[in-house]
Design a protein that fits this description.
With 91 residues, the protein is an alpha+beta fold. The protein has two helices and five strands; from the N terminus they run ββααβββ.
Length: 91
């Protein structure tokens, strides 16, 4: 099993949990398992055509999946996946 860490703004869609345990061989599999358990999350993480939204960053054990194999990044038991929404702003 892997653990997906949920950022505070999205916790309302997962029963206020800070993390959710899922199974999956890849990051994509794990995210699909998360969405299967908590379908209300999908619109916040994915576009209508099923692509991860540009402002949603995923990390496996502190490694950005964009620099690995993206959603095809392999997982091993005990890996931690963090959902990190981008924050923009300022003047």
């Amino acid at each position: 099993m892997s653990k997906i860490h949920i950022p505070t703004p999205l916790r309302q869609y997962v029963g206020k949990q800070a993390s959710v345990e899922v199974t999956g061989a890849t990051v994509g599999d794990a995210m699909n398992a998360l969405i299967a358990q908590h379908p209300d999350l999908k619109k916040h993480l994915y576009t209508d055509d099923g692509k991860l939204r540009a402002f949603v960053n995923l990390y496996v054990n502190d490694e950005d999946i964009r620099y690995l194999q993206k959603e095809a990044t392999a997982l091993k038991d005990g890996d931690n996946i963090s959902i990190v929404p981008s924050i923009a702003g300022g003047c």
